[in-house]
Structure formats: C-alpha cells, structure tokens
Amino acid sequence: MNTTAKNEQNTIFSQGDKANPDYFTGNAWLNLLVNESEFNSVIGNVTFEAGARNNWHTHPGGQILIVTDGTGYYQEKDKPIQLIQRGDVVKIPADVKHWHGASVDSPLTHIAITASTPKGAVDWLERVTDEEYNSYKE
Amino acid sequence: MNTTAKNEQNTIFSQGDKANPDYFTGNAWLNLLVNESEFNSVIGNVTFEAGARNNWHTHPGGQILIVTDGTGYYQEKDKPIQLIQRGDVVKIPADVKHWHGASVDSPLTHIAITASTPKGAVDWLERVTDEEYNSYKE
Fold first, then answer.
1. Closest by Cβ to A33, choosing from B12, B89, B93
2. For a designed S-S bond to A125, which of A56, A81, A136, B123 qualifies (C-beta 3.0 to 4.6 A apart)?
3. Is residue B129 assigned to a domain?
4. Cβ-Cβ contacts under 8 Å, A92 against chain B
5. CA of A25 to nearest chain B CA: how many angstroms apart?
6. For all residues of chain B together, what is the average pLDDT?
7. A45: pLDDT strictly greater than 70
C-alpha cells in the first residue's frame, strides 16, 4: 500500500511539523496557517498517517474540520465513529468531547479552524485506545 | 483553453450557487459550508471563472482566504495586485478595502473564512473596473 503517494497526490500544503506526540497516537503533522490574535481563530492543516488519531479533546469555542484529502474517522463521546472523507465539513460544537484521525487503511488531511476564546482553543484529554479506534462499523 | 477541466481536476467541493451578480463581475459560484451563529464565522467555497472578480469590499472582523486551486489576484486599496495560487493563505485584517478573483487566464478556487461580528461579515463597495483588474504586473 503506497499511502504516501496517495497522500501527496492532492496535497495543497506542505506537511509542516510533527504533531505533539502527547496528544496524537501514530504519525501526524501540523502546518499552522493562521495564529494571529486579530483573527480570533487558529487555522492549521493536519495530516494523519493511516491509523493515526488525536486524543479525546474539547474546544471551548468549537471547531470546523474541512477534509481536503483521504478518508478518516470522527467520533463524539457516546456516539459511533463516523467516516469522513474529502469534501466533508465537520461542525463540532463548543465543549463536545471528540477525536478525529485517519482510517485504518487511508491517510487523512483536513484543515482545522478553531475559535480562540478567553478559555483557549483546545483542552486535551485521554488517548483514544486501540479498542475505541477499531470500533468503526461500516 | 479548457478552464473547466482544469478547475474540476482538483475540486474538493461542488460549485454551489451562482454568486450574487451585484457583488461579482464575471461568473463566480458560492458553496456555503458553514453559516451557523454558534461558530461565529461564515465559511464558503468560492469559484471564479478566468476574468471574474468580486467588488471592492471590507470585513468588520477580517477574513482568511485559503487558495485550493488555480491562480488569481488579491489587491488591497492603494497597493499593487498580488498573484495568489493553490496553497496560498491570504490574511485580510478588519476594515481593509480589497478585492479578489481569478487571473486573466486561469480560474481560482478559494475557501473564505469570514468572522461574523455585530457589524456583520462584509460591506460591499464599488465594482473593480477593467482598468483596475488589468493592472497586474508580473
């Protein structure tokens, strides 16, 4: 399986830096596009290798994900995993506990638009276990 | 010149609806992705045919453009036109008078992230004249 070639095919941005391993399981990269306070949001391009995902987390001001390539997973607490793919827009309300990442066999690239608030932009929680990650049902 | 084929090659979103001709010169389309008040921003995918552009305008809370395909122009009042292309991120501060659109010979697709404020998201002004549009110098 040549996931690298697949991922590069439609890449708009360079991968950027390795994502913080405290908050990500597997290999993921972050290209920070906007972080100026005057725009009241943090915008980044995030690339996940197949199998990679971030920890459970919440956003005090919510978050929008725009999937630009690949196939991945999005899960809110106490709900089943949803499949997400190129062209999907995920609207995550404030304070909803969730995680996102690549699917088992495909990388995922998304733009993440996160509101900056007086309480910050994100609160990181515990890792997504393999059991949780592998619970996707078609 | 087959601009349609070029434009469709890397399209992430469908074109959506024809943009309001009161505020656009030439053919442009808007696919509104996010417009819920809880996210405090309006996010749309905008596609411009070669030669098309929007009117001069300002944003009370600023705007971010993420260019996902093609080549176009961005101009702030009293400055020269800047060439923008796939992978560019344009950061437009609040109240800066500007316009954007496709270049003379290529379509342009960008995601526009516009802050919603108590004063609204956009104030439309006069059309960009052909003389202004054709003032780009390499």
1. B89
2. A56
3. no
4. none
5. 27
6. 93
7. yes
Do the domain assignments include residue A138? Answer: no
Q: Is residue B135 part of a domain?
A: no
Helix (H) or strand (E) holding B85: strand B82-85
pLDDT tens by residue, A1-17: 334 444 444 689 999 99
Interface test with A, best of B14, B89, B108 (most A CBs within 10 A): B89
Q: How many structural domains are present in chain A?
A: 1
Residues 6+ apart with CB under 8 A from B101: B25, B26, B28, B48, B51, B52, B53, B54, B72, B73, B108, B128, B133
Contact status of A118 with chain B (Cβ, < 8 Å) = no
CA distance B69 to B8: 9
Look at residue A105 and tell me if it is in a domain. Answer: yes
For the beta carbon of residue A71, count every other beta carbon within 10 angstroms. Answer: 19
Predicted confidence (pLDDT) at residue B49 exceeds the cutoff of 70: yes
Residue A16's pLDDT is what?
Answer: 97
Domain range for B54: 3-118
| pLDDT for A138 | 85
CATH of the domain at A72: 2.60.120.10
